[in-house]
Write a structure and sequence with these properties.
23% strand; single chain; alpha+beta
């Protein structure tokens, strides 16, 4: 099990390329590394949290479509900026909001918690098994040759991102395509996950205060998933100095 120092060292290696900040200078990534988790299948507590998120989504949406919410609209603009079609590949927040009316997925209690927090705070949020990372997380614009471990029709396949696509990656390949659209199978959370990395993505109009509040909420809920849960977080944002990608 990693200690707090190792978690800090892992997050210290995280990086957002200057090319990504050039695309969206308002982008911020909150990284939350957690260990000591006692995971398992969905339970009564995670179901209750998801039901609260479903109710919050219905209230936020009212009669308007998900893409009319300010943060969802901002992410649609960001997707268009690197050539993606947001009506075909939706950011993770929009995808969850669209599912809320019929019921959010019940996956396992760890995934359930972060999906619920994403909806409650209206922030795209991804979760990865930290033990399966090879090197530090990096957000880059893809060359197009990086491997992405996924499945098609139930069969494991390796795909590659489009050149210029914004992707999260580590030393072994892409961990999440199109910023926050689809995660790799290699690093996906499992029922036996004990250490995890969570990435909270923000664009204007979400404030730093709101981003910190979402991370605080997530950390507090994860702390209930075991007697020895520990977490470390790091905010990455564009440096005001010209040409510095942070």
């Amino acid at each position: 099990m990693p200690d707090v120092g190792m978690l800090r060292e892992f997050l210290a290696g995280g990086r957002v390329d200057a090319a990504v900040f050039a695309l969206r200078p308002d982008y911020r990534a909150m990284l939350l590394a957690v260990d000591g988790i006692v995971s398992g299948p969905s339970d009564q507590a995670s179901d209750a949290l998801l039901r609260a998120a479903e109710a919050a989504a219905r209230e936020a949406l009212g009669d308007r479509p998900a893409e009319r919410l300010p943060h969802v609209a901002a992410w649609r603009e960001a997707y268009r900026a690197f050539g993606a079609k947001p009506q075909r590949t939706r950011n993770s927040l929009e995808a969850l909001l669209r599912r809320a009316a019929s019921g959010l997925p019940r996956v396992n209690r760890l995934t359930d918690v972060y999906n619920a927090v994403s909806v409650l705070h209206q922030i795209p949020l991804g979760g990865e098994d930290l033990s399966r990372y090879r090197g530090a997380p990096r957000l880059v614009r893809a060359a197009g040759t990086e491997p992405f471990d996924t499945a098609a029709d139930g069969i494991a396949v390796i795909e590659h991102p489009d050149p210029g696509e914004v992707v999260w990656c580590d030393d072994a390949g892409v961990t999440c395509r199109r910023w926050n659209w689809r995660q790799a199978r290699r690093t996906q959370l499992r029922e036996d996950t004990t250490a995890a990395l969570f990435i909270l993505d923000a664009l204007d109009p979400v404030t730093d205060q709101e981003l910190h509040a979402a991370a605080e909420d997530l950390a507090a809920r994860l702390a209930r998933l075991g007697p020895g849960v520990r977490s470390v977080r790091r905010l990455m944002a564009a440096d005001p100095a010209p040409g510095d990608g942070g």
